[in-house]
Amino acid sequence: MTKSVDAQVSWDDKQAPSTAEQWVQRASEVAAVLAVDAVRRDRDANTPYAEVQLLKDSGLVTLLAPAEHGGGGQPWTTAYRVIREVAKADGSIGQLLGYHYLWAWAARLVGTPEQIAAVEEAAAKQRWFFGGAVNPRDQDLTITDHGSHLSYNGRKSFSTGSKVSDVTVLEGVLEGTETHVFAIVPSRQDGIVFNDDWDNIGQRVTESGSVVITDVRVDWASAAGFVDKVFQPRVYNTLNVPAIQLVFVNFYLGIAGGALATASTYTRDKARSWLYSPYERAVDEPHVLDTYGDLTAKLWAVEALADKVAEEAQVIHDNAEAVTERQRGEHEVRVAAVKARATDVALEVTSRIFEVTGARSTASSEGLDRFWRNVRTHTLHDPVAYKRQEVGVYVLRDEIPEPTWYS
């Protein structure tokens, strides 16, 4: 991001948003800044320090934090819309913001009341940006009990956003047990080394490379959800998976929406009708109109479903202590359904836009390919076939998914 772009927006002289619509408008303003040099930043794939600072300066990082601590006091329904809006301009930053919201919510998911209050107050006042080193496909970090404190050791292949974060969520297993322990630690310390090895075709600005954890110390008092070294379980502890899967859904839809908007501008301003067509303008070609209508209708349908499932999620968040295993399972099925549809629609939109923009639109300078590359890269996070199976099992056998790292 260039200094000239940064200088275009001064958040200090703007009134802080107070409603959902105002927060979405703030996200739209952030997206407008990101869109200016999104193609170049995708190509350069530099560490997004300026982009994260933009999220902080705009106040978006504190959207979910309680108002009494200076946060936005907004529900998850607003957060998902904000993620979608930011992702329209830059899928990588939409992902970073979404992951931040999930990890910032980690204390709420598994912490004690005292831990929740302490983390949320500090995070809001200091505008922490959260990262996470919790990739379940790798071996768990090893946790050693030293009496008054714990130490974490190990390696994770992916640690999205942690290099640009203030704090990182760690998770591992206590030696000699099957006990998992979450903790929030400062990201900038000698015991955390980021390997700068994220070089994938899409989501290139997410800093999702590997990390090595060596003797990172955590006091037992900061072990999330533990009292006298004993974890206090709740069904709500397992809401991290449906919450993050809805994050995925919304930045997929945001990327697809950004692709459609960018392509439609290109079609209006640059595309030409076919040489042998009776139409002078590309915007009058029947097949162009049909394609845009088809893709837009599909995208709108999934956005509506995503908003509905987000509302269902909010009911659970608002009644965290009362949620049952059955309620949680049925919600996960709904999340699986919208995840499957969002994946299919985002891939279709981002690939088919070239049918209505033409050969010249494939120029690297246009950057239209970044939308497909971003969606294709992240939709491989977990196989969508398993999401459809969750829905099928529920419909045919009335069985809900067992909580896992992916369901």
Automatic annotation (TrEMBL):
One Gene Ontology biological process: L-leucine catabolic process
Domain Acyl-CoA dehydrogenase/oxidase N-terminal: 32-117
Ranges for domain Acyl-CoA dehydrogenase C-terminal: 247-381
Annotated GO MF terms: 3-methylbutanoyl-CoA dehydrogenase activity; dioxygenase activity; flavin adenine dinucleotide binding
Source species: Kutzneria albida DSM 43870
Endpoints of the signal sequence: none
Keywords linked to the UniProt accession: Dioxygenase, Flavoprotein, Oxidoreductase
Record-given protein name: Dibenzothiophene desulfurization enzyme C (DBT sulfur dioxygenase)
Gene3D superfamilies cross-referenced by the UniProt entry: Acyl-CoA dehydrogenase/oxidase, N-terminal domain, Butyryl-CoA Dehydrogenase, subunit A, domain 2, Butyryl-CoA Dehydrogenase, subunit A, domain 3
Pfam families documented for this protein: Acyl-CoA_dh_2, Acyl-CoA_dh_N
